[in-house]
Structures are given as structure tokens and as C-alpha cells.
Write a structure and sequence with these properties.
Elements: H1 5-64
Length: 72
């Protein structure tokens, strides 16, 4: 069977659509990795802020009870 122009056009369109599908899959993967990285950074910042606030609150409570903090 000889290839006609229609067959070649359909094959070219299928190749282009397949390439676009792979690009979309890559964009989804990069998007999800970026979202996970951003969520991790937000969680790390929240942890550090909470840790600093709790440490400061503990130092304030020690000073309010007449105890000295262990700062040299």
C-alpha cells in the first residue's frame, strides 16, 4: 500500500500530538515538584518560627519566676 498525503499528514499530526502529550506530562511533573518544594519550605519556616516563639516563651517564663536564664 502506497502512502498518500493523507496518511503522512495523519502520521505527522499524531507525532506532534504525542510530543505535546510528553511536554504536558513533564510540565505536570515539574509543577508538582515545585508545589512540594514550596510546601516543604512553608512547613520549615513555620517550624522555625514556632520553635523560636516557644523558646522565647520558655525564657520569659523563667525570668518571670525569678530564675535566671542560662545566658553566659
Amino acid at each position: 500500500m502506497r502512502l498518500r498525503t493523507v496518511h503522512m499528514s495523519i502520521a505527522l499530526a499524531a507525532a506532534i500530538l504525542l510530543m505535546m502529550a510528553f511536554m504536558a506530562a513533564g510540565a505536570v511533573l515539574v509543577s508538582r515538584l515545585s508545589a512540594l518544594l514550596a510546601a516543604g519550605l512553608v512547613a520549615w519556616i513555620a517550624y522555625r518560627v514556632a520553635r523560636n516563639v516557644l523558646a522565647r516563651r520558655g525564657a520569659d517564663a523563667a525570668l518571670s519566676h525569678g530564675r535566671q536564664s542560662s545566658v553566659p
